[in-house]
């Protein structure tokens, strides 16, 4: 058996050891870098595609009041996992305020104001992520963040994950 404490690292933070096993903290859902360009809308519509009735100014994107309106960025890769966080400043509750992919699949329904987060797996080859209003929906965002959720956390060859602990 190897010396458990000798094998500890910053990624393997020992919280105690006993009888050949070391309790440790494993990173959960480590996130990649920010994928959205101009997610705080401080540079107007830079980085964003738009359609329908959209206004982006003074750090705010207002979407809707038309039959089909939205903003989008081409940032997604098929079969990868993502976390989206938005801050909805205003929401009229009419129609459908959604986050969707370009295939029309609704990933999240916006149903109120405040900071909202969700995770999803991108299942299609088109990389567009849309923030849209349908049927006279009207909402405003002051921030959008999208990060890839890391699923690959590898251990050295002499480690395996047991229930709530790592053993050698």
Describe this structure in words.
With 168 residues, this protein is mainly beta. The chain is built from no helices and 15 strands. The strands form three sheets. Strands 3, 5, 6, 8, 11 and 13 form a six-stranded antiparallel beta sheet that branches. It has a five-stranded antiparallel beta sheet with strand order 4-7-12-9-10, with no helix packed on it. Strands 1-2-15-14 form a four-stranded antiparallel beta sheet, with no helix packed on it. Residues 153-168 have low confidence and may be disordered.
Quick overview:
The protein is mainly beta and about 170 residues long.
Largest sheet: 6 strands, antiparallel
Give the total of beta strands: 15
Q: Helix- and strand-based class?
A: mainly beta
Strand content: over 45%
Helix/strand order: EEEEEEEEEEEEEEE
As a whole number of angstroms, the C-alpha radius of gyration is: 21 Å
What's the helix count?
Answer: 0
Shape field: globular
- Give the uncertain stretches in residue-range form: 153-168
Q: State the separation between the terminal residues, measured CA to CA.
A: 7 Å
Mean pLDDT: 83
Q: Indicate the percent of residues in helices.
A: under 10%
